[in-house]
Every structure is written in structure tokens, then in C-alpha cells.
Amino acid sequence: MKPLPCHRYQFKCRLQAPLTLNDYAGSMLRGAFGHALRKTACMTGMDNCKNCLLYRQCAYPRIFETPPPSQSHFQQFSQIPNAFVIEPPPMGQQKLPAGEYFNFNMVLLGRAIADLPIVVLAWQAALKAGLGADHAKAELLEVIFEPGQTIAHSLYSVSKPQLLPAPIFQPEPIPACRQIQLQLLTPLRIQQQGRVLSDTLSGKDFLMALVRRYYLLQEFHSANYQAPDFAALAAQAASIEVNHHFKWCVWQRYSQRQKQQMTFGGVLGKLELSGDLSVFLPLLLIGQWLHVGNKTTFGMGGYTILST
Q1: Exposed/middle/buried for 107, CB within 10 Å: 0-12, 13-18, 19+?
Q2: Domain, as residue range, for 278
Q3: 6-15 and 138-145 as β-strands: parallel, antiparallel, unpaired?
Q4: By the 8 A CB rule, do 49 and 55 touch?
């Protein structure tokens, strides 16, 4: 089975008006993107996408509200994972003045990579309409492929507005090891029985959340899916020891859908896994693009590998 393709893009913007960022900007960016994508992609103007004849052909549901297929190797889901992740600026309240540069990342997964042109158009529209409660307008200056590489690959810029194809990219595999340390970059929410796990989070809890996310994305958004032996993976994950240093993080976001403030909590800190990790190393590598746990489209559950 081919691995799930994953691409990260950095969107470099310049504010045309002051912008106030709350503690966590991921939900604000996701809402702006979804609204603009619908306006950009919709051809019928119907209120309910599911009643539209173009429901399974339109870019908006395909990217933002992926419709479940009629048949699935997994149990039937009313909502399946979407093939994108928005990675907001670092956490913390900020007041950015007009003229300030403002960057965020977006990850596209599997077949969604081919939708990059309409994703860029939607972000242009979202920035033009304005971000946050201030409706602060901004301009998209550049789109960088896989930021942080030695050579920056610019796919789009205001001076060269034609969108270029992304180069071939393959992250270096993790060397064989029996210990790995992860740094949580954004709050992690792995739930059991409606409760977010913190100090009781086990190695199995983390690894199987990652396994489930990867294979759901592989089935719904890629090709040549083959179901793994989940029982064997769970048994192996149960043998992995965990050591974590977490702090609890709480913030609020406003839900346009529910028209109310909502409080969210998650954990930040370091997570160390020890044991026979061989079967999980490829997933831990790609998990840096996928994120793990709940609310991943907001950018939550992001991590980086610190050491092996």
C-alpha cells in the first residue's frame, strides 16, 4: 500500500487593517476558509449541500465536509475526516497592526492535494473579506511548499501569480529506535467516554488514535486502501511505555454554527514513547502532517519529533 500523500503549505500574508488574535486562531481561520470556499465553489446557491445535484462533485463538500461513501471498510460514519489541517500562528493573544506580516500553514492530504488551486482562490477570498471579529482585510503574498526546507519552493506569489506544481517531496524516515520524544505544538484532545485524557493518557491511547486517523484518511482520501490488522496493532501499542509532562490548556472560541462561545481544553507538553516502536515509526513520522486527536482541522493535536 502506498503511503498517504501529505503536503504542507505556508500562506504568507500582509494585513491591511489591525487584527486581534485570540489565544488560539485555528478555529477563526477554519471558519474564514470554509465560508470563502463555499462562496468560491458553489454553483447553485442552495442552502443545503446534501440536497444539491452536485453534492458529490463540488469542491466545497469534497474538501470541507467530505460526504461518506455508500460503502466503507469501516463502520458507517455520519461524518468522516476531512483531508486538510489548518496550522495557525503560535498560541497567545496578539494585536497585529496594519502592514504586519501574518503567516499560517495548511496541510492537504491524499486527493485533496489536487485541489490546491481552489484552496488558494478560497484563501484569497477569505483574506479579502476579512479575518476575525474585526473583519481585518489582508493580502495573500506568497504560498511556500514545505516551509523550513533549505531551499524555499515558492508555488505562488503576487509577482508571479501562476500557481506552480509542487516538487517531489519525501521526508527522511525515522531511524530504527526504541524511544522517541514528541513535542506537542498545539493542544491535544484524545477523548474516552466524552473525557479528554491528560495524565491518564497511555501509549496505546496515543498510538491507536494516530492509527485510526491515518487509516481513515487512507481509506477515504487515497487509493489502494488495505485494512491493517487493528487487533495486532492494538496489542503492540499496549506494550509501549509512556512518560509525559503535560500542562492543561483552556481557551474559548465562538461557534458561528451554534451562535455561542464554546470552551475547549487540551494538553500541551512533551510525550515520550518507549518500547518496540518499529511498526509505528512510519505513522509517527507522517503524524507530524496529519495531527492527532479531535479538532485536527483547527490545527489541534500537532506535534514535532524532538529526538529518538
Answers
A1: buried
A2: 179-307
A3: antiparallel
A4: yes
Burial class (CB in 10 A: 0-12, 13-18, 19+), 285: middle
pLDDT tens per residue, range 242-273: 999 999 988 877 666 667 777 888 999 999 99
Which tens digits make up the pLDDT trace of 189-205?
A: 999 888 888 989 999 99
Question: For residue 171, is it within any domain?
Answer: no
Q: pTM for the whole thing?
A: 0.94
User: Tell me: the pLDDT tens digits for 116-153?
Assistant: 999 999 999 999 999 998 899 999 999 999 998 888 89
* CATH number of the domain where residue 242 is located: 3.30.70.1900
Same domain, 214 and 301: yes
- Local structure of 137: helix, strand or coil: coil
> Could you give the number of structural domains in the chain?
2
139 burial via Cβ count (<10 Å: 0-12, 13-18, 19+) = middle
Say what the pLDDT of residue 70 is: 64
- Residues 201/269, Cβ–Cβ less than 8 Å: no
